[in-house]
Amino acid sequence: MVDGSSRTLPAASYFDAAVYDRERRSIFAAEWLWFACESELETPGSYVAREYAGWRLMVVRAPDGQLRGFHNVCRHRAGPLVDDGAGSCANLVCRYHGWSYAFDGQLRSARDFGVEFDHDEYALLGIRVEMWRGQVFVNLDAGAPSLLEDLRDFFEEAAGFSVESMQLVRLAHHDLACNWKTYADNYLEGYHIPMMHPMLNRMYDAKRYDVVLGDRYCRHSAPARNGGDVNGRWLYRWPNLALNIYGDSMNVEVIVPTGPRTCRVLYVHLFLSLDDPDIDQVIRFSDEVMEEDRAMVEVVQRNLECGAYTDGLLSPKHEHAVAQFQDLVRRSSGETI
Ligand code: FES
Ligand SMILES: [Fe+2]
User: Fold this and answer.
1) Whose CA is nearest to atom 4 of ligand 1?
2) Which end of the chain, N or C, is less surrounded by CB atoms within 10 Å?
3) CATH 2.102.10.10 region(s) of the chain?
4) 297 CA distance to ligand 2 middle (Å)
């Protein structure tokens, strides 16, 4: 060990199927997860469904105005209630054999089943849904603390910004051939910026890139090279949520595991005004940075899997947020640090 540095996670944790299965349960079935913008769920019957680390989840706006969350899995023989994506439905009817459920999840009718049974025992399986300033989060753990309590310090970082006034402009996704932690590790340090991001490097002084750690989150900053103020916060909250907030725009980046060797990055762009003349340029620039990162993380993934590398070192100067993230990964699996 080199003084002051820490060791990385072992290479196998980036592709081993048993590790992935453990993380599905110990992290993604235990933590608050960003799920949607509330503006996607305005009218009664509107829904968002997505697969999240193998969990098949949906959130729907019930006719009483409440948001409700369920596993998108019918209690008959595991058919889906809705297709993945955003949409609207008049009823919750399973697409396989047509069992229908009320918007509170109660089984209303088991179409032409041939025998009576107790419907109460076959309600949809619920998940928790809570809101923060127009952003919808879910949690599969009924015993978890509330969203606002659990993410309090992280949310306080955004206190001075008009988060709820930001309007959804684009929700893109990028499918990457790497483990979700390969992408998160990369996101959590500015060490690679001078090597990988020429444009970003021209805008910000990467030598003075600074990362401050908080309770399961970190705040990144770097001074602009032109001396101008950077009126914004670049934040990352364990396990998989990045939030970049400025005076007039914000983006939410969410790393969704899709398998031991793949992930999907959801990229949500929100702007204070839909007439903002910078919209196209901001989106183009973030796509460019994403492609620069993709080129590296997909090769890193293959190198992690190649058999030559077992583990490595994290710089205390540049990679302390990576170390914090990896400590939380270890802790989630019950390892003492
Ligand atoms: S699986 Fe849903 S009705 Fe059969
Ligand atoms: Fe990067």
Assistant:
1) 97
2) N
3) 33-150
4) 9
